[in-house]
Amino acid sequence: MVHRPTMDEVRPVADAFLTASADEASPEDAVALALRLGGGTREGQAHVNLMLVHLFADILERECPTQWRTLWGVPDVAKINALAEEPDPVERYARQKANAGRPVSTADVKARVTNAVNADVLARKFLQVRRQQPERLGEFSAAAEGATGIMVDLVWGALWIACGKVRERAGKPTTD
């Protein structure tokens, strides 16, 4: 039987990601913690990923200032994640990979950046459905993943980045 971690077990993973974000450090420890908690199974990891989506969504809903919300009161993840970005994220990502000894093609990097932008939009839509039609959340998540190919980990990644930026601008501590 697959162990399904509780929110209390997953919360330290979210805290580790937010701490790495605040320290501008690599989130490798948080990734390792998430993988361990998932138990090495696809189902376990999917469960952890889904819980991370909800944890980061809770934080963003609670802490996002009004000026970074849509007309419906939902945090505008795409707008938040665009704050203070370098003008060319493709070049920056390619440079980081090359410096790490893992060069990638420009096409691969552009595809990754496109997925990140799509994840920002999907994360905002997720927050909107979560707020306005919570009973349709499961249906929305399945349809969105099937239609866009955007995986749950990219959505929680978009929410994590937005949480870090909101906290950075507000001068809040990184963990709850």
TrEMBL record:
<protein>
    <submittedName>
        <fullName>Uncharacterized protein</fullName>
    </submittedName>
</protein>
